[in-house]
Write a structure and sequence with these properties.
Elements: H1 3-41, E1 46-49, H2 53-66, E2 78-80, H3 89-103, E3 109-114, H4 123-132, E4 136-141, H5 145-150, E5 156-160, H6 165-188
Parallel strand pairs: 1-2, 1-3, 3-4, 4-5
Helix pairs in contact: 1-6, 2-6, 3-4
Length: 194
């Protein structure tokens, strides 16, 4: 087995998918970062949620807002909501909704990360955000019509077109990194130019 060819092929597929997505995703990423920046400037917080792989990406996003290892700056208030020990998807969604109701305010923002192609696992959290009057940024799979249908006109939907969930997660990772960089640049300037 030629490991190099497998690795090179995987990297090439990812680079092609990222390159092909830039035009489609640049505008919603920019709008999402602007919405998040405004929430932070108004002393709001960003609450993030996802299940499974998406929960890991939500944790990465929060960690990057709390601390950028490449730059000294104040921590930004970002919280990763977790379903706790709930194993069933419906129970996990209910747990996320309870956390939004208990912790968030209308001055905060909910980031939903859902790479699945079917119904949204975070619909409960999204509904709870609606009850609070919170703005929402959703990183979703373009094949997931239920997530798109649950969003309001003022929300931002960053919809990745990917048939394979793994590829969607890879693209969502690039989106999350881009959002963090844009937020940080808006708040603290471009440290690459310092």
């Amino acid at each position: 087995m030629d490991h190099y060819q497998i690795i090179a092929g995987r990297f090439q597929q990812t680079m092609e998918a990222v390159a092909m997505s830039v035009d489609q995703l640049a505008e919603p990423i920019a709008r999402g970062s602007e919405m998040m920046t405004q929430v932070l400037l108004n002393d709001g917080k960003i609450f993030c949620c996802g299940l499974g792989l998406d929960a890991a990406l939500a944790q990465l996003f929060c960690s990057l807002l709390l601390e950028n290892p490449a730059r000294e700056r104040p921590a930004l208030p970002a919280f990763n909501l977790g379903p706790g020990a709930a194993l069933q998807e419906d129970a996990a969604g209910h747990a996320l909704a309870r956390q939004v109701r208990a912790l968030a305010a209308d001055s905060d923002l909910l980031l939903v990360i859902d790479s699945g192609p079917e119904r949204s696992a975070c619909a409960g959290a999204l509904h709870a955000a609606r009850e609070k009057g919170m703005p929402v940024v959703a990183m979703g799979n373009a094949l997931n019509g239920s997530l798109a249908a649950a969003l309001n006109a003022g929300d931002v939907h960053i919809a990745v077109e990917a048939r394979q969930r793994g590829q969607c997660v890879e693209l969502h990772t690039m989106v999350a990194l881009g959002l963090c960089q844009l937020i940080e640049t808006s708040l603290f300037g471009d440290y690459h130019q310092e």
